Amino acid sequence: MRYTKDWSDFALLDASGGEKLERWGEVILARPDPQVIWNTPKGPAWERVNARYHRSPSGGGSWEIRSLPRPEWVIGYRTLRFSIRPTGFKHTGLFPEQAVNWDYMAGRIREAGRPVSVLNLFAYTGGATLACAAAGASVVHVDAAKGMVQWARDNAKLSGLAGAPVRWIVDDCRKFLEREIRRGNRYQGIVMDPPSYGRGPGGEVWKLEESVYDLCCLASQLLAPDALFLLLNSYTTGLSAAVMEYLLAVTAGRRGGRTSSSEIGLPVEGTGLILPQGSTAIWER
Fold first, then answer.
1. What pTM did the predictor assign?
2. What sign results for the dihedral spanned by CA atoms 187, 196, 123, 104?
3. Which residues lie closer than 8 Å to 10 by C-beta, 6 or more apart?
4. Would you say 159 and 151 are in contact if contact means Cβ atoms under 8 Å apart?
5. For the residues of 148-163, what is the DSSP string, one character each?
6. Tens digits of per-residue pLDDT, 224-262?
7. How far apart are CA 168 and CA 207, in angstroms?
């Protein structure tokens, strides 16, 4: 399993009883996690929770705010800065386990020693975008949610990257891929972090398992002859790392190169173990 030990502003303190206990800067949050199927004893750290997210039996959920110092605050990873705030869908605006992928992409970009253009699809609040831009790449950042794109732009400003060569685009990612193919644009790096499920603007249901192969086929057509990587991430429990690696092998892999995959996770301070937080497959040359 791949993970980073380099967070200072974030820590996964413990995981038990369907929840994970996290420190975001000085704020302690408890959030549900379906991977946490054990009921180990909860120590004193759980008594310091500032806010806890409760799922509703009818779907969704809400935050129980106990003593949140402020509604929004900033944490950092290396030179990057991110605005954090609890949202209505249990998220905070950042997936800290993705830092291991940010480091991989930044390393490939720096090692290339040449101009690198990266396409970030389902780009959310811009973690991958900022990591690639800070490493010297030009980035096209695409997400269907206008609010998420603005949040990413705010993070870029916090990180001192407001003037970086980033195009901020609000669009459906599949439609954007199809238009880029017709326009003949190509990229040295592509990263995709699609949601497991959701609904489109017309009410259509999105399920990753039903759409991910077509996405990989389209994205592979946008790889430049000198492409460095295509990275696919998933939180869908039924989509294993090995399945995702196979997907990239039969799509991007037709161009040569090699594919690999692994779970990614976060170290749990209370146990010294690693909590799985999704899977990543990588095609690289």
1. 0.95
2. negative
3. 22, 23, 24, 25, 75, 77, 96
4. no
5. HHHHHHHHHHHTT-TT
6. 999 999 999 998 877 899 999 999 999 999 999 999 999
7. 25
